[in-house]
Write a structure and sequence with these properties.
By secondary structure, this protein is α+β, with helices and mostly antiparallel strands. It has helices at residues 2-16, 26-61; strands at 65-69, 76-78, 85-86, 91-96, 100-101, 106-108, 113-124, 127-134, 137-145, 150-161, 166-171, 177-179, 186-194. The chain folds into two domains: 2-61; 65-194, Jelly Rolls (Sandwich). The strands form three sheets. Strands 3, 5, 6, 8, 9 and 11 form a six-stranded antiparallel sheet that branches. A five-stranded antiparallel sheet has the order 4-1-13-7-10, with no helix packed on it. The radius of gyration is 29 Å and the shape is rod-shaped. This is C1q domain-containing protein.
């Protein structure tokens, strides 16, 4: 819409300056100049508004942050599984930009940039491990061997992602992950800056 306004203003300004002037009529020339001044001011104002609108849209596209815990409520131990299994962190407390999908546990980058991720996993008297996966590549693993009682492990990574790249957390084969109402097992991420 802003481009349409600018085009219309330019058209009005050009039409207002097309009156013929023989150079002898000073009053007509002064009148034409007075018509041009408001047109140029209007064009400038419209361009300024359009620039601000584009800057706001770019800023809003850069707002990306999410944080979720494994369980919404209750207590559970997940696993062990025979293979790496994608974890779905269902209790979403923040999902600005809707880049995290609480149905699949997958984060999808909206824009090219550097993103920071953290994941924390809890375990009760067992082994636990969870790996951060970018597309299909294993990045870093959080691991804990807890012979008795409760333990936890944490890890983080900053990654350069292209728009459309995916990031998720997989539970390691043969391990268990524990979570309860205190939300010890979490997955979070946010955009640091675009490139």
């Amino acid at each position: 819409m802003g481009i349409t306004v600018v085009c219309l203003l330019l058209l009005v300004c050009s039409v207002s300056t097309e009156h013929s002037n023989t150079g002898t009529d000073v009053e007509t020339t002064a009148q034409q100049i007075s018509y041009q001044q408001p047109c140029l001011q209007d064009v400038h104002a419209a361009l300024k508004e359009l620039t601000a609108s584009l800057a706001e849209q770019k800023y809003l596209s850069m707002l990306v942050a999410f944080s979720a815990s494994l369980l919404s409520d209750g207590e559970a131990t997940i696993g062990p599984f025979n293979g790496h299994t994608a974890l779905v962190f269902k209790n979403v407390v923040t999902n600005i930009g809707s880049a995290y999908d609480p149905n699949t546990g997958v984060f999808t980058a909206a824009v090219r940039g550097v993103y920071h991720f953290e994941w924390h996993i809890g375990v009760d008297s067992s082994n636990t491990a969870a790996v951060l996966v970018k597309n299909t590549n294993h990045i870093f693993t959080a691991y804990e061997h807890q012979t008795a009682g409760y333990g936890a492990s944490s890890q983080s990574a900053s990654l350069l992602l292209e728009a459309g790249d995916t990031v998720c957390v997989h539970q390691w084969t043969g391990t268990k992950i524990h979570d309860n109402q205190n939300h010890h097992s979490t997955f979070s991420g946010h955009l640091l800056f675009t490139l």
